[in-house]
Design a protein that fits this description.
GO molecular function, one term: clathrin light chain binding
Number of helices: 7
Order of helices and strands: HHHHHHHEE
Shape: elongated
InterPro entries: I/LWEQ_dom_sf, ILWEQ_dom, Sla2_fam
CATH class of one domain: Mainly Alpha
CATH topology of one domain: I/LWEQ domain
Subcellular location: Cytoplasm
Distance between the termini: 70 Å
CATH architecture of one domain: Up-down Bundle
Main location: cytoplasm
Strand order of the largest sheet: 1-2
Radius of gyration: 33 Å
Keywords: Coiled coil, Cytoplasm
Length: 281
């Protein structure tokens, strides 16, 4: 019983309904994601200002563009799926076609679930970033996951589609658009993170006099530590260069009286003999 394919436990009617329900569920998840992003946008405008507002708007706008691209992708995938069923089922019903091609159907369901899940995770990560309770890296990872699940959905649809299908060409174009929008989310997230970190590091306007004095002393300590470390590294570099000259044979011999004299020249060999080529260190 454990080795039996999972599709055998599902009736034909249930398998066909699962595809339609999953595609509808994915569409609903994306619509909900778009609404949540719009709410986050208005909330960010009310609660933040300056650089933080600029960063939040740029990130949320890129997330909105990505959601719109995913929504178009799911719609096109649904149209292509209907085209595949209509052209391949023959006299069979839609449920019978899905049951006959159960592995392909399960792959389609899995890919649709992955797209919907990725969209939901992206919105939740964006919400945490706007509220300053999450990490920017989460948005980047979610964008990569969406790109991967999109490729999975296109691959699952491409297996049964005709090469000359217009819906397939549209789906591939939508997939490229999703990848481009996901890359925009990554770019806006990285640039926003750099802006926020730079501002937080150099913004002293909200500090009291005692806090400023404490920060000043701690910074002086760090400067002295770095200067000492720099001096040590310079000494180390000098010793490394000395040893390099010794190994290269370019150092000068030291006389007994403390004076230095050049290293003795090598003996002259026969005129007809070619002098040896100097070896690199």
């Amino acid at each position: 019983q454990e080795l039996r394919p999972k599709s055998l436990d599902i009736k034909q009617e249930e398998l066909g309904d699962m595809v339609e329900k999953e595609m509808a569920s994915t569409s609903e998840a994306i619509e909900d994601a778009v609404r949540r992003i719009e709410e986050m946008m208005s909330q960010a405008r009310n609660e933040s200002s300056g650089v933080k507002l600029e960063v939040n708007e740029r990130i949320l706008n890129s997330c909105t563009d990505l959601m719109k691209a995913i929504r178009l992708l799911v719609t096109t995938s649904t149209n292509l799926q209907k085209e595949i069923v209509e052209s391949g089922r023959g006299a069979a019903t839609t449920q019978e076609f899905y049951a006959k091609n159960s592995r392909w159907t399960e792959g389609l369901i899995s890919a649709s679930k992955a797209v919907g899940w990725g969209a939901t995770q992206l919105v939740e990560s964006a919400d945490r970033v706007v509220l300053h309770t999450g990490k920017y890296e989460e948005l980047i990872v979610c964008s990569h996951e969406i790109a991967a699940s999109t490729a999975q959905l296109v691959a699952a649809s491409k297996v049964k589609a005709e090469k000359s299908s217009r819906n397939l060409a549209r789906l591939q174009e939508c997939s490229r658009n999703v990848n481009e929008m996901a890359a925009n989310v990554v770019a806006s997230t990285k640039s926003g993170q750099e802006q926020i970190e730079e501002k937080d590091t150099m913004d002293f306007s909200g500090m009291s006099l005692i806090k400023l004095k404490k920060e000043e002393m701690e910074t002086q300590v760090k400067v002295l530590e770095l200067e000492k470390r720099l001096e040590g590294e310079r000494v180390r570099l000098g010793e490394l260069r000395k040893q390099h000259y010794v190994l290269a044979g370019g150092c000068e011999d030291t006389a007994e009286d403390g004076e230095t004299r050049p290293a003795p020249a090598p003996r002259q060999r026969g005129i007809l003999k070619k002098p040896p080529i100097a070896q690199k260190p």
